[in-house]
Hints:
Blueprint: E1 4-17, E2 20-33, E3 37-41, H1 48-55, E4 63-72, E5 75-76, H2 82-91, E6 93-96, H3 100-103, H4 110-121, H5 126-139, H6 145-148, H7 158-170, E7 176-180, H8 188-205, E8 208-213, H9 216-222, E9 225-230, E10 233-239, H10 240-245, H11 250-257, E11 307-310, E12 313-315
Parallel strand pairs: 3-8, 3-9, 6-7, 7-8
Antiparallel strand pairs: 1-2, 1-4, 4-5, 9-10, 10-12, 11-12
Helix pairs in contact: 4-5, 4-7, 5-7
Amino acid sequence: MSEVLLEVKKLRTTFFTGDGEVHAVDNVSFDVRKGEALALVGESGCGKSVTAMSIMRLVASPGKITGGEIRFKDRNLADLSEKEMRHVRGNDIAMVFQEPMTSLNPVFKIGDQVAEAIRVHRKVSKKEARKQAGDMLELVSIPDPIKRLDDYPHQLSGGMRQRVMIAMALSCDPELLIADEPTTALDVTIQAQIMELLASLQKRLGLAILLITHDLGVVAEFCERIIVMYTGRIVEEAPVLDLFANPAHPYTRGLLKSLPSVVHDEKRLPTIKGMVPPLTALPAGCKFNPRCPDVMPICLGNEPARMIVGEGHDARCYLHGDLADPERIEQ
C-alpha cells in the first residue's frame, strides 16, 4: 500500500449562523495516498466542498474549523499561520474550482494569469514565468499554446478555460490536486476530455487527486476509492469496484439506483424519497433514517459508528453492526 500523503482526522467545520451552530463537516476522517485518485461523492449540500475548502484553509466567515486535524506530510495544516498556509497552497496542494469563468479574471490575458500563479511561488523573471506558462498550457493539451497566452478568458470555450485552471493549479508542481466538480458546467463530451486529461496527468506527474463530484458515473472509471458523504458525515468508504458491486449503505444504494442506464427501460429512474434535511434540523440517530427504506427502531436512537463491511470497506449503518434489528419499521 502506498504512503499516506494527506490524513484528515475527526475534522469538524462549523458555521455560526443566526439559527445557531451548524456543523457542515462533522467528525470526518479519511486519508489520501500518494499518487491515488480518491472520490468524495454525495448530493449538493452534503459537505463535500466545505471539506475541500477546510483542507485548503479557505473556509470564509462565519465558518471556522472547530475540531480535528488535517495532516499533510506530518504537518497539521489546521495549526499553520496564514503565511505558512499560503506557501502550502499551490506548492504542495492545489485546487481546481467548479466554475472557471468565476476563477479567471476577465480583464487579464490567460498568459498573465498563469504566469502570476507561477511567480507567486517561484522566484523567476517575468520572461521565464511566461515561458513556463506556455509549457503548462501545452501540458494540458491546449492547441497553439503560445498564441493562447495572449487570449482573454471570454475567447476560450468552457473546456479550454477549465484546462487553463488545471494548468494554473499544476504550475508549481503540487503533490495533491483537489478537483471540486471540475466538469459541472461542461457538456458530456468535454467532461470526458477533462477527466481523460486529469487521468493522464495523474499518471505522468505521479499526482494524487481528490475528486469532489455528485456524478458516480465519472468516478467509476477514474478513481480507486470512493467516500460517500451525507449531512456532513462519511456514510461509506470503499474501493471503487467493491462499492459498485456491493454498496453497503442504503444511501449509496439509492445513489447507484438513480444512475441512468443504457439498457432501455420504460420505468422511471428510482429516486431517493424526501430531501436532504437542513443542517439546523437534523433527525436524531442516523441522519438518513427519514429517507431510508431499511430503517429499524435502533436507527432512531444513537447515530451509528462506521462499521466494517470488508477489507477497506466500512459503512455508517446498523445493518452491518451487532445491534442490527431484523424488524423493519414500515414507512
